[in-house]
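Each letter names a residue; the fold follows as tokens. Both lines appear below:
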Amino acid sequence: MSTAQTPGQLASGKASRQRGKERLDNILKAGQSILISEGYASLSLRRIADQLGISNGNVTYYFPNKDALLRALIEDMLATYDREFQNEAERFPDDPEGRFAAYIDYLIEDCRQADLRGFFYQLWSLATHNDVAAELREQVYEHFFKQARTLLEPLNPGRAVGALNGSALTLMTLIEGLHVMFGCSAEFLQRGDDFDASIRRHARLIATDAGSS
């Protein structure tokens, strides 16, 4: 007996998958919003269900507990960075200098987003006393370290692995510091002439290891 699906069954299955994806996206957005605005203590599957006007079972279908939800939030965030990283790679397939500069510009603007800064603040705080959050923080930084290595390697071919790794870590330190600095007032940041240009210049120095002896 044939098991081929009819056009109606195929359409129904596609619609069901689309609804499932939309619901998952909505759950993640609600979870991120609660985490940023109210903190991890207020983040619960019930709280998300209430905010979205759905049953608690609709949330636990995707995430059985808060740890699973937190992991998904981190994975969703990293997927966003991966997409942007790939976008820049495709824009500058044969130009590592242009690719590096474009991605640094993206990260500078990214650090200006208050919601994103709030997300990282919560993760950093939580990681001091929550083993799952500490593990996820390590995962996040490992992910960014690999991206930094991928950007830096073509700019200085032949560099020793240790030197390249040191530059990647230093570049990460520069960018991570922006999450803190961009939380300051505009007046404070305007004390320096063209702060963004200074960030780009120092990122480039790190990339080429121009300050080394």
